[in-house]
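Backbone shape codes
____________________
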Amino acid sequence: MRFSIIFICSALPALASASPTLRLQSRVPDCAATCIQDTNPPAGCSADDNTCLCNSNEYVYMTSNCIEDTCSADESSTGMNELKAVCEDVGVALTLPVPVQKRAPDCATTCIQDTNPPAECSADDNTCLCNSDEFVYMSSNCIQDTCSSDEAEAGINELKATCGRVGVAVKLPVPVQ
């Protein structure tokens, strides 16, 4: 009996901090809630620590990737918006690292991963990368040089779509500087 009381008392703070996650999961489509529940928290984060989870690019990337892959377009949009809202509730302004790797052909994925980000951008900051003409130019050139014509078209379309999802309209070809 003593264990039960201690366990219940020690669980109260966790339940209080878990409420944003519970609220999130009740407002999103089932496919998005499943992604949120099934994505393992990274080392150092507990499953009910939304501040830690929202600050983890790994967790946000894996969760958003799952939502994009398993939900319809409407469900995905709802899930992504709610993910952003929950992170904002805990003081984290979330810019979703949108997954290119799942939708692009392997040759395009390799090009994007192998293109060095400009000094002012981190490798997981799609907004910064998409605003960098140099990065977009180098990535798209690599895709066009490396992939077959069908793969290149799919890779370029995914690059444009990825940038569009972070609010950056990419026009190709990018002017050479």
Summary: The first helix runs from residue 2 to 27.
